[in-house]
Design brief:
1 helix; 2 strands; 87 residues; mainly alpha
Length: 87
């Protein structure tokens, strides 16, 4: 059957269904990609917040280490027994 290039030709129901199915799947994938991108942004924000908290904790540890060094001198700390052994 020759196709007339000037007049629209009706697709078969099967062809139309296949095209709709492909478009539906494509739209679903695009939506999922958007969800993944949003989740990545949220994870990036959480990662940065944790890094900031970790830096603060490290500074707190350094400050405590200086205080303990000034009070007890150089030593090895045993947290389980709450002791410091001079070295």
């Amino acid at each position: 059957m020759a196709i007339n290039k000037k007049q629209p030709t009706k697709l078969t129901e099967d062809e139309a269904k296949q095209l709709r199915d492909i478009k539906f799947q494509y739209d679903a994938f695009v939506f999922q990609l958007g969800q993944v991108a949003l989740a990545e942004l949220e994870l990036d924000e959480q990662t940065e917040a944790i890094k900031t908290e970790l830096k603060g904790l490290q500074k707190e540890e350094e400050t405590l280490a200086k205080v303990l060094f000034e009070k007890y001198g150089k030593g090895e700390i045993d947290i389980k027994n709450n002791t410091i052994t001079p070295v």
